[in-house]
Amino acid sequence: MDEWIEQAAAEIARRAPRELEALVAVSSPSGDAHAADECAALTAALAPDEATIERVPCSSPEHAEDQVIRLKGTGTRKVLLVGHNDTVISHAEHKPLKRVGEQLVGSGAVDMKGGNVLALGALRAFAKRPELYDELALLLVCDEEWRTDDFSHVPRFAGFDACLCFEAGELAEAGEGVVVRRKAAGTIHIRAYGRTAHSGSAPDRGRNALLALAMAAQAVASRHAPDGPSHLTAVPTILRSGDAFNVVPGAGELYCDVRADSLDAIEDILTHIPAEHEGVRLEAELVRRWPGMQSEEATAPLLASASTLLGRTIVAAARGGASDASHFAATIPLTVDGLGPRGGKAHNPEEFVLEASLHSRAEVALALILAALK
After folding, report:
1. pLDDT tens string 32-55
2. Where is the Peptidase M20 dimerisation domain positioned along the sequence (predicted)?
3. So what's the pLDDT on residue 245?
4. Residue 306 in contact with residue 367, Cβ under 8 Å?
5. What is the mean pLDDT of residues 313-321?
């Protein structure tokens, strides 16, 4: 292993558990502006002294501003690091970090505050080597887990040579796994417009929005074909309808999470949702569009170079979950994801980071950044 990587990774790993504990202590579900500001203050404190820190508009309205931490150097290449501070865990379910055996368990630990800690550690390490880069930037957003508007940051980093995202790391039998392929993702939102009526004395005068949405959910789920040509998954996830137990529900809404190799396959599902069911009008739209990511070919030489620096193999892998790396992949061909620590149970109150992986994944991150700067 490159001697500098070995030494710098050890320093990152030494500090990482305490820094992760501090960041996880802030309950920061998407949309909570105060919590996002708390996270931004903490990540600013963990940034290198040499960095400039800027708050920039978030892609989602009524959110706190996102954060960009920049290092300027005297080299020629520009590398972007990407993370997010928001979680899907509500304040009521939030759990601070605690050590359970080999695990560091806490809300947002693996998705993705553990990755943010490694990215900040990498910035501190590279702050001491400004001759290697023209610019090294870390983008931390606060709306990744529940964004419905278009992602706004791609033009901000036009001309960058590589994008490295610190979502959770991969476990690979043949070496250290990173993500170079992701599915496209979309959220289908269906509104139902029926008619209320007394469910005891006049049920047939109503037009039941709940039943229409249940039919729509079945229509979406019927397209589920993970082993098909588009590897499409179609999962109804949220259904809201009705205000009282004795009233035919006259309105409601349904959300469905859909993933596939391409957005075209996702948009095709809309054509299979009828516009009406038993007198209830249905309006369906795709409110969240995430592009896919196919960076295998472009990143193969980068992974090979980083493997040489690391002294062990970095393996290309695919993942079904969406990530902000996908938004950058179309304009920054050298885009690699999954540089964060390994762990599990993301989007669950019991999510965790494997403590030992903080060291090994810091080595992977440093090797990839160093390779991208050459």
Report:
1. 999 999 999 999 999 999 999 999
2. 182-273
3. 95
4. yes
5. 89
Q: What Rg value do the Cα atoms of the chain yield, rounded?
A: 23
Considering the domain 184-290 in this protein, what is its CATH number? Answer: 3.30.70.360
pTM, full prediction:
0.88
Q: What is the CATH number of domain 3-183+292-372?
A: 3.40.630.10
Cα 300–Cα 310–Cα 120 angle in degrees, nearest 5: 95
CA 79 to chain centre: 19
pLDDT tens track for 130-172: 999 999 999 999 999 988 788 999 999 999 999 999 999 877 7
Query: Distance between CA 338 and CA 325 in Å, rounded?
Result: 10
The angle, 0 to 180 degrees and rounded to 10, between the axes of the packed helices 296-310 and 357-372 is: 110
